[in-house]
Amino acid sequence: GYIHFISASIFFITLACFSMFLFTKKNPNPTKNKLARNKIYMMCGLVIIASLIAILIFFMFFEIKYPRSCFVFWAESIALIAFGISWLTKGGTLLSDKK
Q1: Is 95 left (phi over 0), alpha (psi -120 to 50) or beta?
Q2: Of 33, 62, 76, 80, which residue is 20 to 30 A from 50 by alpha carbon distance?
Q3: Is residue 27 very low, low, confident or very high in pLDDT (cuts 50, 70, 90)?
Q4: pTM, rounded to two decimals
Q5: Sign of the C-alpha dihedral, residues 74, 75, 76, 82?
Q6: Is residue 34 within 8 Å of 98, Cβ to Cβ?
Q7: For residues 60-99, b (16+ Cβ closer than 10 Å) or e, as one string?
């Protein structure tokens, strides 16, 4: 379980960094949609970080009481969905600039 948690943490921290730092790189004249996309990227990154913190809290305080809980599955799923939204936004599916 610990190897999975450490590996998944590194993976999700990398995804959060993509969303929060790489995807939000600004150009000199950002459009209205680019500013809105940057908000989406930041929110998605924060959701990923919050999911990791929730999993850590679960491991620290609740795993002994609920050893067969599916909490980690759902927290990781939420983090992946958040990155998926960020990725779709970056790919131009959501809030693209019309050219």
Answers
A1: left
A2: 33
A3: confident
A4: 0.89
A5: positive
A6: no
A7: eeeeeeeeeeeebeebbeebeebbebbbebbeeeebeeee
